Every structure is written in C-alpha cells, then in structure tokens.
Amino acid sequence: MILTSTVVMFGLMYLNTYAWEHVFFSETRAWMALLMGATMAVIMLGFMSGMYRNRTANLAILAGARLLAAKRMTRSSG
C-alpha cells in the first residue's frame, strides 16, 4: 500500500508541469516521493498499530522508514 501510494505521489508531482516538454525525470521529485512515503508509513502504522500485531514487522517498517528519511535529509543538506 505504501509503495503504491509513493509511486502515485511521484506521478502527481508532475501535475504542476505546464508543458509536455518540461516532463522529465527529476531526482528531487523522486526523493520527495520517497520521503513522503516513509512519513506516511510511520503515520499509518501509528494509527493502525492495533491491526498489525507482529511487533518485529512493525519495528522493521519503522526502521526502514526512518533510514529512508534520514538518507533523504542527509542528501538534501550535503
């Protein structure tokens, strides 16, 4: 679900493009979509923690989201 939403968010970022000639791959848009996906994973897991009883899987999802967000933050400041 998170992966699908992240891909959709990446595509939606191109709706702000005025001409087809301006549509090209943007690394910034890709990183922002991944950051939004990681943030969404943490928020959704927080709200639906009662639905997912597997503590190991929950911690793995949170750790992966945190690593992805940390990678994005260090990339933007470096």
Summarize this structure briefly:
The protein is an all-alpha fold. It contains three helices and no strands. Helix 1 packs antiparallel against helix 2 (27-47) and helix 2 (27-47) runs antiparallel to helix 3 (55-77).
Defining key terms:
elongated; single chain; mainly alpha; 78 residues; 3 helices
Roughly how much helix do the residues carry, as a percent range?
A: over 70%
- Terminus-to-terminus distance: 31 Å
Query: Which structural class is indicated by helix and strand composition?
Result: mainly alpha
**Radius of gyration, CA atoms, in whole angstroms:** 15 Å
Order of helices and strands: HHH
The average pLDDT score comes to 82
Assembly form of the protein: single chain
Which parts are unreliable, with pLDDT below 50 for 5 consecutive residues or more? none
User: How many helices in DSSP terms?
Assistant: 3
Q: Which descriptor suits the 3D outline?
A: elongated
* Biggest sheet details: none
Strand content range: under 5%
The beta-strand count equals: 0
Task: Characterise the protein shown here.
The chain has 78 residues and is mainly α. Helix content is 71%, strand content 0%. Helix 1 (2-12) runs antiparallel to helix 2 (27-47) and helix 2 runs antiparallel to helix 3 (55-77).
